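[Meeting: bench + compute handoff]

Bench side (C.D.) handed over the final construct sequence. Compute side (W.E.) agreed to return the predicted structure before the next meeting so the bench team could plan truncations. Sequence as handed over:
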Amino acid sequence: MLNALEQKEDFGWAEIDHPYHPFRGKHFKILKTRKVAGVDTMILEGSHSGTFAVPREWTDQANPGTYDRLDICAPILCFRCLFALAELIEQIGKESLDR
């Protein structure tokens, strides 16, 4: 018969890669995963208080983005965003002329 420690699933390790996280670049053992408010979250072992939670997207375990899968650089400017910006600037210009 297996005890509780022997039954635990091994989730591996995760590296924090969020640019502003204080543990960026450090590896931590993944104790468990869960959803918190719809966000995939990992409970990691190793902080001064024992464990801590981080969104999966803040680690090297995040789902790859579209451009990562295609092995190309993400565009710096998006046509849809530029068009929306142009419309906003035009709207602001019209409102300032009406005053």
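W.E. noted at the follow-up: The two ends are 81 Å apart (CA to CA). C.D. will use this when planning the next construct.
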